[in-house]
Amino acid sequence: MQIEDKIPDPTEYCALRVASGLSAMSLDAATLGLPKSLYAVTLRQDGKLIGMGRVVGDGLHVQVVDITVAPEFQGKGLSRQIMERIMAFIDEKIPKCAVVSLFADVDWLYQKFGFVKPQKSQGMFYKRV
Ligand SMILES: CC(C)(COP(=O)(O)OP(=O)(O)OC[C@H]1O[C@@H](n2cnc3c(N)ncnc32)[C@H](O)[C@@H]1OP(=O)(O)O)[C@@H](O)C(=O)NCCC(=O)NCCS
Asked: 82 — alpha (psi -120 to 50), left (phi > 0) or beta?
């Protein structure tokens, strides 16, 4: 298993998101968006992308996104390795005053890294028609 601070290729990124049950992203959007990552980590086995995570934003507001492990590799603690790298990046490189957020489908994954549910605010999605 290889873990690297690297942005995934757009094609494998799109495939991994769909394989693990996240919403589909277009190849064009991924090609434009991925290089703008503040930070990205990839997990590979025999060269194949099996997990990843990213941090996006501008250093004032940053968001943890795309935390994903391929279905056949889930339940083996790999997401912890991804999150540990991401938290090291945030602790070292992101100013303390920044707002660091995420949308958690599974809150158990993030609570142990210090993320809490907000008291006052509530996350919202813009529903495109
Ligand atoms: C969510 C996901 C990233 C988790 O990755 P994973 O490598 O399979 O994670 P694991 O099942 O090995 O569990 C990671 C940790 O959570 C714990 N855990 C697993 N299921 C749990 C549960 N239902 N309740 C509480 N803790 C749980 C594990 O014990 C492990 O703890 P540890 O790191 O302290 O040892 C992965 O299942 C995935 O890619 N899912 C589809 C995409 C997705 O939903 N991404 C998250 C978007 S917010």
From this structure: alpha
